[in-house]
Amino acid sequence: MLRLEQAGADFSEIISELIMESFSQQAKILGITEKEYPNFVAFETPGKVSRRIKRGERVVLGYLLEKPVGTVSYKMDDNAPAKGYIKRLAVLPEFRGKGYGALLLDYAERRLLECGANRVEISIVAQFRRLMEYYRSLGYRPVEVKVFNTLPFEVLYLEKTINL
């Protein structure tokens, strides 16, 4: 059974390690390095995690027994009170396919709903079709593709309406 706990900035190192390990394969597939693209999720540092938490993001850690195996972050949109964001959903590769990602995502969605959100947005690398299908299976729908001059790939935004 996955145990979920809110994590503060004092867990920044554990959170960054989970994220880096979970997203390292994406960086390899994309052929990018930290030197070229330091802001890509696979290169998350404890300092970046700590700054995100200090800016108001909530972070959850998922544990099996006492081992952290996944994490997710969420935050309300400061400019749209009924909208929330989910970021950095990460499950260690050896623990994927067991429903832990869906549990973490559901937890974040429920917390955002409690904060007044009725829709949630996530973003992924657009070329990762299998990941897009995963989110579609959880009720998300693609809404927009964006190009950023700081990234060598397109970013796909997906959205989900949440309610009781």
From TrEMBL:
Residues 9-163 form the N-acetyltransferase domain. InterPro entries: Acyl_CoA_acyltransferase, Bact_Acetyltransf, GNAT_dom. It comes from the Bacteria. The keyword Cell membrane does not apply. Keywords: Acyltransferase, Transferase. Gene3D superfamilies: 3.40.630.30. Pfam families: Acetyltransf_1. One of its GO terms (molecular function) is acyltransferase activity, transferring groups other than amino-acyl groups. This is GCN5-related N-acetyltransferase.
